[in-house]
Amino acid sequence: KAPTGTVSRSTNFTATFNEEVLNVTDLTFTLTPSGGSNAVEATVTLNGAGTVATLNPDSNLQAGKKYVVKLTTGITDLQGNHLASSVSWTITAA
Questions:
Q1: pTM for the whole thing?
Q2: What is the pLDDT along the chain (94 residues), one digit of tens a residue?
Q3: Cα–Cα separations (whole angstroms), residue 3 to 22, 71, 76, 77, 80
Q4: Separation of alpha carbons 71 and 9, rounded Å
Q5: Widest CA span of the chain, in angstroms?
Q6: How many whole angstroms separate alpha carbon 75 and alpha carbon 10?
Q7: Cα gap 26→22, rounded to integer Å
C-alpha cells in the first residue's frame, strides 16, 4: 500500500497484491475523510496483470485533512477467495 503518512494533495494511492485479483472498484477501494461516511469521488483501475490497483481522486485533497484509505473484503482472487480482512490506513494531505 502506498503512499502512507503525509501525502501530496494530488497523490494517487496504490495497492499491490501477491496474485491477480478481481472486484477492485470504487466500492472496494475507497478514500474517505477521517470521521466521515462519504467516500471521495475517485477512479479506480487495475493494471493489466491484475495485481496493482490505483485509486485516483477526482479532485485534490484538502490540505491538513486526514483521510482513510480502505480495501474491503469484496476484493477476490481468481478462485473467488475474498481478501482475508479489510485493510485501511490513515494519511494526511499536505
A1: 0.95
A2: 999 999 999 999 999 999 999 999 999 999 999 999 999 999 999 999 999 999 999 999 999 999 999 999 999 999 999 999 999 999 999 9
A3: 22, 14, 22, 23, 28
A4: 20
A5: 41
A6: 25
A7: 13
Give the length of the chain: 94
Asked if residues 72 and 84 have their Cβ atoms less than 8 Å apart, the reply is no
Which residue type does 58 have? Answer: D
Q: CB–CB of 75/25 below 8 Å? A: no
Q: Which residues pair with 29 in a beta bridge?
A: 71
- The per-residue b/e assignment along 23-59, b for 16 or more CB within 10 angstroms, e otherwise, is bbeeebbbbebeeeeebbebebebeeeeeebbbebee
Q: Which residues of 4-15 are buried (b: 16+ CB within 10 A; e: fewer)?
A: eeebeeebebbb
> Order of strands, edge to edge, in the sheet holding 13-16?
13-16, 52-57, 42-46
